Amino acid sequence: MTASDSPPVSAWRQRLAGAGLAPLVLVPALVLAAGMAALLAYLITWQNQVGRLERAAVPRLERFAMQLFAPPRRYTYLPHLLANDRTLRDALSHPRDSALVREANAYLERQRERTGATVLYMLDAHGTGIAASNWREKISFVGVNYAYRPYYTRALADGDAHFYAMGTTSHRPGYFLSQLVTKDDGGVLGVAVVKADLTMPDVRDYGGEVLVTDAGGVAFLSSRADWQYRPLKALSASDGASVARTRQYDGVLRAPLDLRTKRTLDSGAAIVDIGESGHYYMVRRPVPETDWHVNLLLPLEDVDVAAARMALLAAGAVALAALSLLYLWQFRLRLAERERSRAELEGAHAALARQHDALTALSDQLRVQSSTDSLTGLFNRRHFMESLERLLGTAQRHGEPLAAMLVDADHFKRVNDEHGHPVGDETLRRLAAVLQEETRDGDVAARYGGEEFIIALPRTDAAAALTVAERILDRVRAIRTPVPGGTLTVTVSIGLAVAGPGEEMAELIRRADAALYEAKRGGRDRVVTSA
Ligand SMILES: Nc1nc2c(ncn2[C@@H]2O[C@H](COP(=O)(O)OP(=O)(O)OP(=O)(O)O)[C@@H](O)[C@H]2O)c(=O)[nH]1
Q: Where would I find the GGDEF domain in this sequence (predicted)?
């Protein structure tokens, strides 16, 4: 098949529909369209909802940081105060003097109560705790060496320091403020330290979870109790070693949270899964002056549900629209089909009507032919006999006269013999024309056989019929048929009979024939009326 003789598109469409192929093509197309719409709606809704979360997340993080770090800043003055206190300096100078140390402990205890800080303590020049506000407690800082802690080393180097860290003894995160304590001669006497615990601010209205993680990713502050002291992911070897060395999570560190990053967004935030807990939008910020991070985790279940709902709606809408279009299309096809059937029916009907007309014409023609004599155009003998039978019946019912006359050409054999058969035929046609012209409507003139004619004249009595016969004789005498060398004239003899009451048709004809015989015998070219 070439391009030029391929069927037009509409024909293909009809073929598709007709062959039942439409569902094979349309159903997958519909499913694909609905699927695409669902996907698009899902992505757009998801993006919008996450955008909304993202816009809300940053101010929450800032608020959190403010709440977290506001309290410790209140204590910046305190280490300096301790470093210059005579009692404490005395205790540092004479650490073996238990009375001085007791006095220092009591002083620190009072200051702690007054200020609300978590622990106040004094380290000697080697970093060992000499006096502490928690000296009475089971886990006291007295006697513990903190020389490796940055707040100590930095104070030695810089005079003072502030430092956020996990407490190695308390295992609680805090804000450490330190101040170098010097002797009057400038030598190092020790370091005064104030620790303010960091506590978890109230984040109930954040719509999610907040975690503060250290450099190794351990969540040391968490809005969810079961996430506290758990690394976000399994600790790296070096982080594990560091945790072991500093001993800051001894006895509290738990299994990793198993955080898996699914996607990183342009903003730097990420979509993560946390173990079996679910699916979260996660944004994190470093905490200034520390190696910590604040992490905000917002659950994405609602976003997923909203996106899925929109996807479902979009797919439904597309499916509905597509089904409506399909229905319209089918409806149009069916309309076109019906229109075509109607046109076909009308065509068939018109063809039938034409056939019917042709048959009627043929039948008329046959009827005329079957009742007509082909040479003269007059009725034939069979038709005449049927007509006479009917006319005779009518005449007798109404008591009306009916005449019958037999008209026979005289010496016609001679015409044929002398001038040939065609001249004979022409003569017969001219005789027939005279008979046709001389009879009225309602009369029936027919060729009875050979050169003999017969006429039925209803409502005609003998006298009237005689007049007609005389006129026929005259007209025949006047016929001039051209023949080689001149013209031919003919005469006819007529036998006339008028039907008697109740007379049979055969009898009437027989009497007319007898009268005709009389006319021939009487010399021809005349009319004889049956008695
Ligand atoms: N040309 C022609 N001749 C016909 C036709 N039918 C009959 N004839 C002839 O008419 C002639 C009739 O002859 P006959 O019956 O002997 O009678 P006639 O010669 O007319 O003599 P009369 O009737 O006694 O006057 C015959 O020669 C037939 O052949 C016809 O259709 N055409």
A: 400-531
**Range(s) of the domain holding residue 187:** 74-197
Instruction: Look up residue 205 and give its DSSP letter.
Output: G
Q: Is the pLDDT of residue 189 over 60?
A: yes
What is the token pair recorded at 370?
Answer: 């079957």
Shared-domain flag, residues 144 and 248: no
Ligand 1, atom 2, lies closest to the CA of 424
In a domain, 262, yes or no: yes
CATH for 477: 3.30.70.270
Task: Provide the pLDDT for residue 2.
Answer: 41
Compute φ and ψ for 398, nearest 5 degrees.
-95, 0
C-alpha 448 to ligand 1 mean position (Å): 13
Residue nearest to atom 5 of ligand 1 (CA): 450
Record the tokens describing residue 517, joined without a space.
């015989």
pTM score: 0.52
Q: Separation of 464 CA from ligand 1 center, angstroms?
A: 29
Question: Tell me: the pLDDT tens digits for 83-134?
Answer: 999 999 999 999 999 999 999 999 999 999 999 999 999 999 999 999 999 9
Measured at the alpha carbon of residue 21, what is the angle toward residues 17 and 27, in degrees to the nearest 5? 100
- Number of neighbouring beta carbons within 10 Å of residue 360: 10
- Binned at pLDDT 50, 70 and 90, residue 428 comes out as very high
Which has the closest alpha carbon to 401: 500, 288, 305, 519? 500
Per-residue pLDDT of 227-240, as tens digits, reads 999 999 999 898 88
Reported as a single tens digit per residue, the pLDDT across 306-324 is 999 999 999 999 989 988 9
What value, to the nearest 5°, has the Cα angle with vertex 80 and ends 75 and 84? 140
CB 421 near ligand 1, within 6 Å: yes
Place of tokens 């021939």: 520
Q: Is 481 in the pocket of ligand 1 (CB under 6 A)?
A: no
pLDDT of residue 465: 97
Q: Is any atom of ligand 1 closer than 6 Å to the C-beta of 445?
A: no
524 CA closest ligand 1 atom index? 25
Alpha carbon distance 418, 185 (integer Å) = 188
Q: What is the pLDDT of residue 16?
A: 55
Taking the C-alpha atoms of 70, 201, 220 and 270 in order, what is their torsion angle to the nearest 10 degrees? -100
Write down the pLDDT at residue 266: 87
**For ligand 1, atom 13, which residue shows the shortest CA distance?**
413
Same domain, 442 and 469: yes
Residue nearest to atom 7 of ligand 1 (CA): 450
Q: How far is the CA of 386 from the centre of ligand 1 (A)?
A: 25
Cα–Cα distance, 469 to 480 (Å, whole number): 19
| Ligand 1 atom at minimal distance to the Cα of residue 412 | 20
Task: Assess if residue 158 is contained within a domain.
Answer: yes
